[in-house]
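Students often ask why we bother encoding 3D structure as a string. The short answer is that it lets us treat folding as translation between two languages. Here is a chain of 554 residues written in the first language.
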Amino acid sequence: MKKKLTKMITKAIQCCLDTHSLPFLEIPPILLELPKNSAHGDFSTNIAMVLASQIEKSPYEIASLIVSNMADNEHVIQKVEIAGPGFINFFIDPRVWYQTLHIIHELRRAYGSSNLGQGKRVQVEFVSANPTGPLHIGHGRGGAVGDCLANILKAVGYHVQKEYYINDVGNQIDTLGQSVFLRYKQLLGEDIDFPSTYYQGDYIRDIAKEIVSKYNRKYLNMKEEDAIPIFTSYGVKHILNSIKVDLEDFGVRFDNWYSEKELFKSDAVHSTVRGLKDKEYIYEKDGAVWFRSTRFGDEKDRVVVRSTGDTTYFASDLAYHKGKFERGFETIIDVWGADHHGYVPRIQAGIQALGYRKDALKVILIQMVNLLREGKPVSMSTRAGEFVTLRQILDEVGRDAARFIFLTRRADTPLDFDLEVAKKKTMDNPVYYVQYAHARICSVIKMASERNIAVPKPPEICTHVLNLPEELQLIKQMAIYPYIVEGSAYHFEPHRIPYYLTQLASSFHGYYNKYRILSHDSDLTQARLYLVAALKIVLENGLDLLGVSAPERM
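And here it is in the second language, the structure alphabet:
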């Protein structure tokens, strides 16, 4: 529908140009919005106001010219209104909306998919937690956002790779090995102080216990410089395996796991620094090597090689992102914690200096999760080294509730996650609310089958008997699903999908509670079955994008 209207508006503007009703101008992209108030039509555009900025005519006058030159050869428009300073509001002929039902039944699983991405290669890198401890609740939110966004981008025609970047180099990794080694020695009876700067969590002791169980006292008298690499390697592998299990149970499967170690093995980090030097973006000061990031809008220049000769994490990150582009990705999406917001300008400066477009990198920042129980805050940290893990959340509320609730708000806004609400089998639970709509429809279809009533092929009677305002509202809501998906992809905003599904489920629950789907009126029963069967498809497709199941019984 949007494409048809856009084409009609473009032709109308071109007609105005051909007849000199409007002076020569470049026709800009035409934006069609879905008005929040149905009184403002089914679609609305501000194109007249956009054009008014180019020529000496009022938006209202331009809107009038566009409307008067529109040719509706396919009879899709019921009426057009010009509102306010020059908004053009379109009311679609109800008969056109009914065609949506046929399209949904024909496309089924493909309904909502498109070729917006045209096969362009996109990489989504998310979670990427250091292998120094278990995933926490914040990683869970980032995991849900990244995974859902990847699903959405695939649905609209992008070739997507999901990647986890393993930060397995640096001081934090060395500290992990030292922490496990000291716990190992303590378990074998040595009286050793455990520094507060080491990892304090019980998981460190668990790893040490596992080593004791496998190797007993084998490493007890080994020199520390020889033992630490062994304990580091063991600790990283143990934690990484645990992370993979948690992500698998969370429904997140990565296409690629990229180790930071590989950057150093391939000399990619030093090669990247040399490349910046060749472009004269590098200088030396105080014994260190600096990148002129201020040339690209950063607030200050950044060190890439310390005075000790060690490269910085920033240098590694630049090499990593350079490698992503060299692997053929046209757009790179990084999902980071909100505490990394200050890091965005420097990495954008870096990719520009390396010769890539600034907008080729999109960073999505994940705000904090406020954990609640019956509306009251839950302590996120019980004692040093302990925090609420993703595993604890999954064990208590399950995958579906966790993923859905993590996705109910914009990624860059804080999220309240109430554990008790997430466990409820009532309409108060947002995921239950949507899933129950699907289960109700399955129940109706099953009941119809038991009465030997099958979901019909396209009944032409739909336009005659589905004439309740609630029915037309449901059809309109289903019709905009592809636009919701494309909008989510275009703006990198997965939260639009659960919001849409909640609104759709709300309309259905209201309709279901008020009217009977199966009745003594054969035509009405057939039409309503056709309607709700289409709704079932849309709910399934939407939940699938979220990585949430669509149960048939609840």
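Translate back mentally: The domain at 2-92 is CATH 3.30.1360.70 (Gyrase A; domain 2). Keep this in mind for the problem set.
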